[in-house]
Amino acid sequence: LYWTPLAAARTLGVDLSMSLRLYDADGQLLAQRDETPRQSTSTWPLTQVVRQPLSVPVPVAARPASYTLELIVYRQDDGAPLSVPDNERSVLGQRLRLATLTLSSADVAPNFGPPLATFDYIELLQSTVNHNNAAAGDALQLTLYWQPRASAYTDNYQVVMELLDSNGNSRQMWREPAGGLAYPSAMWPANQPVRDIKQLQLNPDLPAGRYTLTLHLERASDGLHIDAKRPWWPFGAARLTIDSIIIQ
């Protein structure tokens, strides 16, 4: 990016940072990278052009689709974003649309190693929960990486996530389409990994204790339960253990 500081910028009295972001068509954040200019913005020479390179990493297995590249400039002291003039490139008065980008599938699929489990023809490659300690009412983010094998049969599936207490009783359940509504599993190309993010809102009255987060798939058309087949065990499992969650 190329900037020209104006005299009015000196009245801010603080240095600025930039956040470059990718948003999907639904306004959901795909990726961002925040950077602080090597030369403080308060020392940029007035009326001269200043070059500031920015970049944002594209997540592995991001859904092939169109995304908007957007910029936020914010104060370093309190993180407050600067306002953007109201025009066709302004988003919520804070984000500036820079471009529209189309992401395609990777030419060479990344290697995640052996899958955690297989459901029909779909492999679960990796799963990550952003927090293992939480409070009742908090939100957890579960990131899943799927990869469909080549198959004459394809279908849409629901991801069923359950929180089990120490006695194995289900205390909360979430059911969402694999890949989300915009990218259901029947659309996934064979042998290409798919990043699937699930937001898990915890019940506010969930008792404190240690819980186990589990997962299984159901066929969307008829609700048929799909067992998890693990590479090291010859029998299917009704639920796949994802992680332990401690509710404080």
Summarize the structure in words.
This protein has two domains: 2-102, Immunoglobulin-like (Sandwich), CATH 2.60.40; 117-247, Immunoglobulin-like. It has no helices and 19 strands. It has strands spanning 2-3, 16-23, 29-35, 50-51, 66-75, 90-91, 95-102, 117-119, 122-129, 133-134, 139-148, 157-164, 170-177, 194-201, 209-219, 225-226, 228-229, 236-237, 240-247. The strands form five sheets. Strands 10, 12, 13, 15, 16 and 19 form a six-stranded mixed sheet that branches. A five-stranded antiparallel sheet has the order 3-2-5-7-6, with no helix packed on it. It is elongated, with a radius of gyration of 22 Å. The mean pLDDT is 92.
List the helices and strands and how they pair.
Blueprint: E1 2-3, E2 16-23, E3 29-35, E4 50-51, E5 66-75, E6 90-91, E7 95-102, E8 117-119, E9 122-129, E10 133-134, E11 139-148, E12 157-164, E13 170-177, E14 194-201, E15 209-219, E16 225-226, E17 228-229, E18 236-237, E19 240-247
